[in-house]
Specification:
single chain; about 260 residues; alpha/beta; Nucleotidyltransferase, domain 5; 2 domains; six-stranded mixed beta sheet; five-stranded mixed beta sheet; 7 helices; 11 strands; about 40% helix; globular
Length: about 260
């Protein structure tokens, strides 16, 4: 079985594949100072919940934007599974070309998402990933990752607003009854939620206008809040919550075949 591990700034997602079929997925908080042995216990417990152990895992692929945890998980795999994981970088065979001036600056998650979009949906496409940061990644019709945009995630924006304004409370990140807030909570929800919808719609429109293609451009949403926003805007054509893990499987297969 293939264990795919996506290490983000806030959460770590693990997915277990058998051939091309999902088995199960798990999610854990990102704790940057945890030791490899601690993550080994966590991973063993996840596998045990599916009546499996380390011996069931024959290969591992890792995408990470947290360098200390890249090392921690690599050491964990080498120690407990006794083989080297495939760690995705800009030099990994992914099925796409990283066509930016400094490809080493492209985050592994952005490369994986774009590779998944190419393999599953085809280009041209824009992948919008709602995480700690919200990223917009552009795939052209020539199988090339050609850049994108990075902005603050809505959760981080809400936290920053509350921390800087003494009288503003923490609010649920959801649309209020009316865009015109009649109280502080609804006003904050309107500004955060509908302001973010405006950001998504405006930025995807500008990116589309910048892409030199006459083909339809599909916008793919992924990440925790993608489904919520999809219900309130036409800017997202499809939502694929497991896009990154699916991309990791695609990339592993490409490299296994080599």
């Amino acid at each position: 079985m293939l264990l795919a591990i996506d290490i983000g700034n806030t959460n770590i997602y693990l997915g277990l594949w058998h051939n091309e079929r999902w088995q199960i997925t798990w999610r854990a908080r990102t704790v940057r100072d945890k030791m490899p042995d601690e993550y080994a216990v966590l991973t063993r417990n996840f596998l045990s919940s599916a009546d499996l152990g380390f011996r069931a895992v024959s290969s591992v692929i890792i995408s990470s934007v947290v360098p200390p945890l890249t090392l921690a998980f690599t050491e964990m795999v080498e120690t407990y599974l006794e083989f080297e994981p495939l760690v995705v970088t800009h030099e990994t065979e992914t099925g796409i070309k990283v066509a930016i001036p400094q490809p080493e600056q492209a985050g592994a998650d952005r490369i994986v998402n774009t590779a998944a979009a190419q393999a599953i949906y085809g280009g041209p496409a824009i992948v919008v990933d709602f995480g700690t940061a919200t990223t917009f990644d552009v795939l052209n019709e020539n199988r090339e990752y050609c850049g994108g945009a990075i902005t603050t995630g809505i959760g981080v924006a809400g936290d920053a607003l509350v921390s800087r304004a003494a009288r503003l409370p923490t609010v649920d990140l959801k649309p209020p009854p009316n865009p015109i807030g009649k109280n502080t909570i609804h006003a904050m929800q309107s500004g955060l939620f509908w302001g973010y919808v405006g950001l998504i719609e405006g930025l995807t429109t500008r990116i589309k206008h910048s892409m030199e293609t006459e083909k339809p451009i599909q916008v793919i949403g992924t990440g925790g809040l993608a489904r919520v926003f999809h219900q309130h805007t036409d800017a997202l054509d499809v939502v694929d919550l497991n896009l990154t893990l699916a991309g990791l499987r695609v990339i592993y297969q490409l490299n296994a075949e080599k």
